[in-house]
Amino acid sequence: INTTVNDEFEYTEIQLDNGVIVVMKSTDFKNDEIIMNSYSEGGTSIVSDSDYFSASLSSAIISQSGVGPFTNVDLTKYLTGKVVQVAPQISSLTQGVSGSSSKKDFETMLQLTFLYFTQPRKDQDAFDAFKSKLVNQFKFLLSNPQVVFYDTLYKLATSNDARTIVIPTDEEINNVNLDKVYDFYKDRFSDAEGFKFFFIGSFNIDSIAPLITKYLGSLPAT
Questions:
Q1: What is the DSSP-derived secondary structure letter of residue 79?
Q2: Given a cut of 90, is residue 169 above it in pLDDT?
Q3: Vertex 63 angle, CA 123 and 27, to 5°
Q4: How confident is the model at residue 166 (pLDDT cuts 50, 70, 90)?
């Protein structure tokens, strides 16, 4: 519904009617690479201390669960031969989706982005495998005195703040709840209004704008 061209920094910004803002800058650094990043405000800052650890793991768990009709294994097979990667990310203050692709697989990157907003998977097997891996990983780290030192240091520096978790306990890991993880993720991505997307790389703006409008313009806005 609106287009702005910045001549000084050579980028084009478009506003879609669902409230998504898209910034595009064409470069010649690499011949066949397009990089995407996005964010909106919120992140884990909106949850209570008791739900923080589950929320902080939500993007990693969803990433390992596949997306839409694809399990993680199915998705890996489907993307064989394609030069594309996409992953959701949630930090303390923001959430978004990042990725990269070749020019040929740019539409696939947008399709996966659309699915991570609209059809995240709730996969119990992937969740159980993630938790098991986490327990084993931190058992190994606890055998490293330097890691234990930093864990103690951060707890002292933050007066034992509930959101400063360097090495989670087994109890904290076991208390991670798949329903809470999934519900929090869905809440953060259910409304695309306010999201800003950035595309930088080897592309012609006029050629990618219709695809951006098609997929990002179709994201739900409440």
A1: T
A2: no
A3: 155
A4: confident
Distance in angstroms (rounded) separating the CA atoms of residues 186 and 221: 13
- Closest Cα partner for 56 from 167, 212, 184? 184
Whole-angstrom distance, CA of residue 196 vs CA of residue 145: 42
Cα dihedral 143, 147, 149, 152, rounded to 10, equals: -100
Instruction: Read off φ and ψ for residue 162, nearest 5 degrees.
Output: -65, -20
Mean pLDDT for 101-118 is 98
CA distance 130 to 71: 14
pLDDT per position as a tens digit, 5-44: 999 999 999 999 999 999 999 999 999 999 999 999 999 9
CA angle 126, 183, 53 (to 5 degrees): 70
The pLDDT tens digits of the residues spanning 123-165 come to: 999 999 999 999 888 888 888 899 889 889 988 999 989 898 8
CA-based nearest residue to 45, from 184, 220, 191, 193: 184
Amino acid identity at 88:
P
Q: Which residues pair with 11 in a beta bridge?
A: 6
207-214 CB contacts, 8 Å cutoff, 24+ apart: 208/24, 208/34, 208/106, 209/14, 209/24, 211/106, 211/107, 211/110, 212/14, 212/22, 212/24, 212/110, 213/14, 213/16, 214/110
